[in-house]
Every structure is written in C-alpha cells, then in structure tokens.
Specification:
heterodimer; A: 314 residues; mainly beta; 12-stranded antiparallel barrel; 1 helix; 7% helix; 55% strand; B: 512 residues; 16-stranded antiparallel barrel; two-stranded antiparallel ribbon; 18 strands
Chain lengths: 314, 512
C-alpha cells in the first residue's frame, strides 16, 4: 500500500532536497576577466607608455577582443566565450591624463556547472538580449611624475575606478565599485622601449571559498618590452611581449587564484605631431588555468591620438 | 555669430577654467543621460567645453576632428488626486491610479564625435537614467507626462550605450552649408546637395521628425505628446533606441530620408530582434524647408511601415469569443500581466503583423525666436503598440518662444495642446477588459453585466488630451530651471475616468 511507505518516502525526499540544496549553492556572478586594457593613448595594449606631453592632447580608441575560456573552475569552463568592444577616450594636459573607457560585452557565453557544491549559472549575453549593456565603466587619472615624455625612464602613478554597470549574472561585473592604484614606469632608448606596473586592484567582493570567485583585493603586476622599427618616414612599428597577472592577497600566489597572461603585441603608429593613427594587434595565451586566465586571447585596436613629434632620446 | 568668436565672458575665463572643464569632461562618464530625445543645438554663446576650448585657441569649431558635449536633466512631476468610478477593474492592471503620485527622471548623457576620414564621422553616446513613472507607467496613452520615461526603467541609475554609429557624407554639389559644432554633429562644411548614410545604433528621432520649434525636449515641453507624433510607433527597444541604417538625400531646400531599423523581440521590451530581413520598421520622410515672410519654416511628410511580431486587437477578441479559455489570466506566453479571466489578451494571437501610419509635421517661425508647430499622424490602429505608446491617431500644436522679447534670450516658454485617439477595434478590445502594453482599465461596467460592449463604447471611448504650459529660466547660459503645468483629460481614452488630471512639474537641465 502506498500509504504505509509515504512517511519514509517523504523523509527520503526531504533528505535528498537538503543534500540537493547544499550541493547546489548558487554562485553569484562576478567579473571573470582580469584583462585591463591600457587607457586610450597609452601606447601598449595593457601597459602604459606614460608619454603624455604638450598642452591639450588626447586620444580616442575602439578596441575589440575575444577570450576563450576566461573562467575555468576545476577544469570546467563556465565562461567559454567572451567578446567585448571598448570605446575609450583620454584627455591629456602636460604630464596628466584623464581617461574613460566604456566596455560593452558583445557576447558572453558558457555553460552552467556544479563544482565543489557550487552551482555556476551559464552566462548567456549577446547584443540581441542586451543591446546596450556596458560592463563596468572605467574612469581614471594617470600622471607622469619623473622623466620626459620620450626619455629613457619615466615614473608615474595611476588611479582608476570601475563604476558597476554590467549584469553580474553574466560574469561581466562584480556589482560593486572597484579601483586600481598603480605605480607605472616606462622608457624609450633608441630602438628599445619598455613599460611596466605594480599595483593593487581594490576589489571589495570576497566570496571566500567559492572556487574561481573574487577573493578581495589583488596585487597587479605587468611588464612589456618592445622593439621599435621604422616603417617609412612617418610611421613606426613596435613589436614585443606584454606579460601581466593578478593574485589576491587572500590566497597570495596560489596557483588556483593567480592569473597570468602573455600577449605578443604589435602596433603601427604615426610619428608626427597632431592627430595620428595607431593600430594594434595582440595575440596571446593564458599561463595556467586559474580563474581569469583565458586559454587564448585576440585583441584589436584602432586609435586616434595626439602625436609627440619627438623622437626618443638615444 | 561664429561659435569661435570671442565674448567678454569667454575672454575672462582663465586657463584654470579650461583645466576644470577638461576635468569635467573626463569625469562626465561617471555621471553620464537618457531616453530617445535627441539633443538640440548649442547656442553660439553657450557655456560649454567646446566653446571654452575654442575661445582659448585650443580647438577649431569650424572644422572639427572631434567634439564632446554633455547634458544632465532632473525632471520631477506631481500628479494631484482625481476621482475615478473604477480602477483596474476585474484584474486588469493598467489604470492610472487616482491617488496623488510623484514621478521623476534623472538623466545624463555624453555626446562624443570624431572625424575618421573625409566625410566619415563616428558618434558615441553613453547615457544614464533613473526614473519613477506614474502608476508604473500605466494608464496614459499618448500624453505621458515626462518625455524621458523609459519602459522598464528603475530608480537605480542605469548606464547604457545609447548611440554608436558611423555617418558618411558624400557631397553632390550645390552651395556650401556650414554645420555648427553641436551634440552629435561635428563642426564642418557640407554641400547643400549631399547623400548621408548612417549605420549603427541610434534613435530614429535623431534623424527624422526633427521639428525646429519643439526642438530639444530637454529645453521645452515636459510631455511626451510634444516630442514627436504620439501615434508614430517607430520600432525601437524599450529605451527608444534602434539598430539599423538611415539614408538621407539633401537637395537644397528638400530632403528625403529613409530608415530601416530593428524592432524589439517582444513588444515594448529591451531585447532587440536583429533579423532585419524579417522584422523591421521602415520610415520615409520628405521635408521641404521654406522662408515665409522672411522667417524660416518647414513641412515634413512622414510615413512608416512596421513588420513586427505583435497581436491584433480583432484577433484577440475573436480568439477569446471562440474559446473563452484563451483569456488574459490563462496565457503563459509573453503578456502584460492581466489577471482578468474574462477578458481577451493579445498574448494568444501574436504573429507577423504589419502596422502603417502617415503624418505631417509643420513648423513656422512667426517672429525672431517665436515659432509655431503642428503635428498630426494617422496609424491603422489594428495591432498593439510595439515600441512607442498606445495612441493610434494623434495631433499636437502650440507655440514656443525664447525670451528675446523681454531681454532674456536664453529663457524658453511654450504652450501646447496634444490630442490622441485609438481605433474602434482597439477601443472594443479595451471595453472587453483587454489591456495593451500601457493602458486598460478593465471592462465596461455594462460588459461585466453581460451586455455587448457596443452599449458602452459610444460613452467610454474618448479623446485623450493634454494642455501644457511651461517657462524655463536660464542661468549662466548653461543651466535651465523650469516650471510646468499639465492638464490631462480622459487618460487611456476612457471617458468614464475623465479626470481631469492635474500634473505639476519642475525641471533642472544643464549642458556642458
């Protein structure tokens, strides 16, 4: 008779439900990418050339990038495809630069997964479902404190703020304000140029033990070196690697929390004074498989910027 | 007067003020505006960043490589209580609530433009909006009290990309025409005969039905009835923006424009349907500019044809009458939330429908800085609103004047009357208790008693109207403070709930 088995069945169901609930603690989305493009006019794809100069100058840029598997948790890619556009601008005044960046996700796709008892929702964002969405909007100030715009060593500071505006459930925003404070350095010497930074990503979200999720503020590191090659009389190309990464202070340098990425970047740019055109291409791979480290990445950028018209000092 | 010309005010500005303006410009995105009300031209002597740079020799306004403008606006309106014999009858959800209510919008916009190559320009405009509509944006047809209100908005500020498009101008000769530096317009010189192609993400209102008298809604009327034709159901997402292309041929005093743009996936929603070969809104406008007694004016004829996934009123009524199980409360597909189990619903009958309309727009200045306007449009009214508002026919007219006559040339005042109507099939659907995206007070009381809706239609179906008068005081050539009075009657075309409804408003608007 079904009636005699009913209480036991209910108990079993309740037990299963309880386990089920524990097994599927829902994960709130967050900003999966740890790729922070340089401000408009900053030369490199990620680093900053700190070559602000003259009175009023500026730059406007359009970037697009694609990252494969930028969020992998326990070997499972939750975010499998991440394509973004970025419209950025900057106004410079002598050695200061005020910049903004509007990152708009074009497509963020993936699969839902339950990992370690946590249920990760699948991102499903495209231009049709989110025709006008920004991921977090970024504004910033950078200043060169030491060195000339084209000198062998330049030192500066940068402060950037992300204003939360993207849909958290699609892994394009933490849903909180975030900031980035960095010490920047760069230089030019004959055919060689370099840039780097060390800084802190002030990240209020700390989801504790949720694999792949934010674990509070992070240390940022990055460096780039490139060779400058003349292209005709009015243009030059710069080719070189850019390496960058981030590690949270909570879980410092752990392999599952630290992201690292290498991009081979190439750019061609005008060398004259006044408005110049710059085109950049970057392709790279993630170094490891932690959260925020893609399998590979492709970046394109076109930029109008105020040229220095000054050759680097030998 | 050239925008680049010096003024005593500008000469007094120090280089520190330039740096401050540059800082404002850089930080503007942290505020960033909203809705599909296109920006108006900036006055030559306005206080704005571009004028400031030009006055210091840092920018050429006549041949711009880039420009950047911005605005922010806060509008607050208070609806006084009105009496209504019934509200949201039998589970309907779209009545204007009879109690006192406060609504507001706050918007901020940045307009960036850059010249890419000869004749090629790119424009980008991020916006922010926060809002609280009256009655959850229900209960008013064509006379929504704040032009900036968006569907699905919230009191939490939302930042989004409003516009991102390319514009290519191809000169075809004629006289040189100067285009002044303005939001979404680089300062340049173009041929009076030219072909202009725009492609990308924009508001249709950025290019069509640009009445020079009503101008920038941020500076004139509060009510949406005066922003464009209330009956023009131009396809757009819930914020009023579309993807697509506009082709414009200017030939001296004549212009013809054609726009082919995306509709929403579901009526009045944000997601966009990019299948432009299957679902689209087409608009065709013919414009002639003239000078009458030495004063400028223009005439525009505008037609539109939407091919969209919507419901027809007659189909919904027929479906319900054939099978009462197909009622508003039972439908689980995309619907507007009615719980009326005895009413038809558009949800059951959505399919590919064509909606058409034709309208005329007149503007005529009758003195310096005093203009008259008139708009009228007739839409077929057979299917539901897809993107704008619920009016099927509309007319608006009035006058706008700047304060030159009384020595305050930056002040703006206006008076207008906006009227709109719905079709008989739309009215019958509502009388049976159906709702559309924005209106539906419930069935006629006679229908509740089991009588045929025709018994009440003659009494209930009415013209919705709004009378509005405003005055906007300017400060520092950059900030406007406005007071506004609106009188609405027959909201949702329902004479049973005729009101009138008094709405008082205030607005602060700044441009930079």
């Amino acid at each position: 008779m079904p009636s005699s088995r009913a209480p036991r069945g209910w108990a079993l169901g309740a037990l299963l439900l309880a386990f089920g609930a524990r097994a599927q603690t829902p994960v709130q989305g967050f900003a999966a990418e740890r790729f922070y493009p340089s401000p408009a006019g900053a030369g490199w794809l990620v680093m900053d050339s700190l070559d602000m100069h003259g009175r009023l100058g500026g730059a406007l840029s359009f970037s697009a990038w694609y990252a494969r598997d930028p969020l992998r948790v326990g070997g499972t890619a939750v975010v499998t495809d991440s394509a973004h556009g970025l419209i950025a601008g900057a106004v410079s005044w002598e050695s200061w630069r005020f910049s903004f960046g509007f990152d708009f996700p074009l497509a963020v796709k993936g699969r839902s997964a339950t990992i370690g008892g946590y249920a990760y929702p699948a991102p499903d964002l495209d231009l049709g479902s989110h025709p006008d969405t920004f991921a977090d909007v970024r504004v910033g100030i950078d200043a060169r404190l030491l060195g000339d715009a084209a000198g062998p060593f330049r030192l500066g500071l940068g402060a950037h703020l992300w204003i939360p505006s993207g849909p958290v459930e699609h892994y394009v925003s933490d849903g909180t304000y975030r900031a980035m404070l960095r010490l920047l350095f760069a230089g030019d010497a004959s055919w060689l140029c370099y840039a780097g930074n060390v800084g802190v990503h002030v990240r209020p979200r700390n989801d504790g033990g949720v694999p792949g999720a934010p674990r509070g503020s992070e240390l940022l590191l990055g460096a780039a070196v490139g060779a400058r090659l003349p292209v005709g009389e009015a243009h030059r190309a710069v080719i070189g690697p850019e390496l960058f990464g981030a590690t949270p202070f909570d879980g410092f340098l752990h392999s599952d929390t630290t992201s690292a990425e290498a991009l081979l970047s190439a750019r061609i740019e005008g060398m004259g004074e006044g408005a110049q055109l710059r085109a950049k291409l970057g392709a790279g791979v993630g170094l490891g498989s932690s959260s925020g480290t893609p399998a590979w990445r492709l970046v394109l950028q076109v930029e109008l910027f105020s040229g220095t018209g000054v050759a680097p000092k030998p | 007067m050239s925008r680049g010309g010096p003024t005593s005010c500008a000469e007094a500005m120090s280089s520190r003020s330039v740096a401050f303006a540059v800082l404002l410009l850089a930080l503007a995105p942290s505020l960033t505006r909203a809705q599909a009300s296109p920006p108006g031209a900036h006055e030559d002597v306005a206080f704005d960043v571009m004028n400031l740079l030009a006055h210091h020799g840092l920018h050429d306004l006549d041949d711009e490589r880039w420009n950047a403008y911005g605005q922010t606006t806060y509008v607050s309106t208070w609806k006084l209580p009105f009496s209504a014999p019934y509200t949201n009858l039998n589970g309907s959800t779209n009545s204007l609530l009879p109690g006192a209510e406060h609504s507001f919008t706050w918007s901020a916009t940045l307009y960036l433009g850059a010249k890419l190559w000869p004749g090629g320009e790119a424009y980008f405009s991020p916006e922010l909006i926060a809002e609280r509509p009256l009655s959850n944006l229900h209960g008013i047809g064509g006379a929504i009290q704040i032009y900036e209100l968006q569907k699905g908005g919230s009191e939490t500020p939302q930042i989004y990309r409003a516009r991102l498009y390319l514009k290519q101008t191809i000169g075809l000769g004629g006289e040189p025409q100067r285009k002044t530096s303005d939001p979404l317009q680089l300062g340049t010189t173009v041929d009076s005969r030219r072909l202009v192609l725009v492609a990308g993400n924009f508001s249709v209102l950025d290019f069509l039905d640009k009445n020079g008298v009503t101008g920038d809604a941020h500076q004139t009327f509060f009510n949406m009835a005066f922003m464009t034709h209330a009956a023009w159901d131009f396809t757009a997402d819930a914020r009023g923006y579309s993807y697509g292309a506009v082709l414009e041929l200017d030939w001296d005093d004549w212009a013809v424009r054609f726009a082919h743009v995306t509709p929403p996936k579901n009526p009045n929603q944000l997601p966009v349907d990019f299948r432009l070969w299957q679902y689209f809104g087409d608009q065709l406008e013919l414009e002639h500019d003239h000078v009458l007694l030495g004063l400028p004016g223009a005439v525009r004829l505008l037609g539109y044809r939407n091919r969209v996934f919507t419901g027809s009123f007659d189909d919904a009524v027929s479906a319900f009458q054939a099978d009462p199980a197909k009622n508003a409360a039972a439908c689980t597909a995309y619907n507007y939330g009615s719980q009326n189990a005895e009413a038809p619903d558009l949800c059951w009958v959505r399919k590919d429908n064509v909606k058409v309309g034709i309208g005329v727009d007149l503007e005529q200045f009758v003195a310096k800085d005093i203009g008259l306007f008139f708009r009228a449009m007739y839409s077929d009214g057979q299917s539901e609103v897809d993107a704008f508002n619920t009016a099927d026919r509309s007319m608006s007219f009035g006058a706008v004047a700047k304060g030159s006559l009384w020595g305050r040339p930056f002040d703006v005042t206006g008076i207008g009357l906006g009227l709109s109507w719905i079709s008989s099939s739309h009215a019958r659907y509502l009388a049976l208790g159906g709702i559309d995206g924005f209106i539906g007070d419930g069935p006629c009381p006679e229908v509740v008693q089991g009588k045929d809706p025709s018994v009440c239609l003659a009494r209930r179906q009415a013209t919705e109207g709004v009378f509005e008068v405003f005055y906007s005081v300017n400060f520092f050539k950059a900030i406007w403070l406005a007071g506004d009075f609106q009188l609405l009657w027959n909201p949702a075309y329902n004479a049973d709930r005729s009101g009138p409804v008094v709405v008082l408003g205030a607005k602060v608007h700044a441009e930079f």
